[in-house]
């Protein structure tokens, strides 16, 4: 039995059966619900490892579900939705989703996204054991064990994606990370739409940690290439 518990939130019975049958064949543990309120309740009571979430739910919009769960949990959320506009993807990712899979999808792609997320969970669990528990760079401090970020000793609130981006840059301080490398590490893909999402997240991250956006102290943009964390 796969040790990861998946919470499936899907109101379309056919799609829900396809997903749960796929998970069952791959020996995943899973729970399946059809409404946003049930999703929140099950997330609270069962603490799943990964959440597969449809946006078009009968009671709550999926983005609202993401926002509510993000007030207390950093569980990886993979959106599985028929909404395929970039604006919809960016809204879900900005709300705190970790990945976005557009319907119709192949079961192989779904399983690949799950494997990427599992690897990321395992990697994050090993962060404290593979590097210093606290990262310091000028006024910036990252407490990996607590999952907290401070500027001049004052804690700042980051979304899960912003925190992952900051940790990725910190781990590779001084190195230029390409757009494709970052999107693969954060979302498990290198689609152009994910690069657009990356720019949005990087802009919001900078607003929170940089004193002057016109003269960045920590995150340097390499136009057309990617980003680098500077040593202060």
UniProtKB/TrEMBL annotation:
Residues 5-118 form the Response regulatory domain. The modification 4-aspartylphosphate is found at residue 54. SUPFAM superfamilies: CheY-like. It is found in: Cytoplasm. Keywords: Cytoplasm, DNA-binding, Phosphoprotein, Transcription, Transcription regulation, Two-component regulatory system. Signal peptide: none annotated. GO terms for molecular function: cis-regulatory region sequence-specific DNA binding; identical protein binding; phosphorelay response regulator activity. One of its GO terms (biological process) is positive regulation of DNA-templated transcription. The keyword Membrane does not apply. PROSITE patterns: OMPR_PHOB, RESPONSE_REGULATORY. Residues 132-231 bind DNA. This is Two-component system, OmpR family, KDP operon response regulator KdpE. GO terms for cellular component: cytosol; protein-DNA complex. Residues 132-231 form the OmpR/PhoB-type domain. It holds the Pfam family Response_reg. The keyword Transcription regulation applies. It comes from Megasphaera paucivorans.
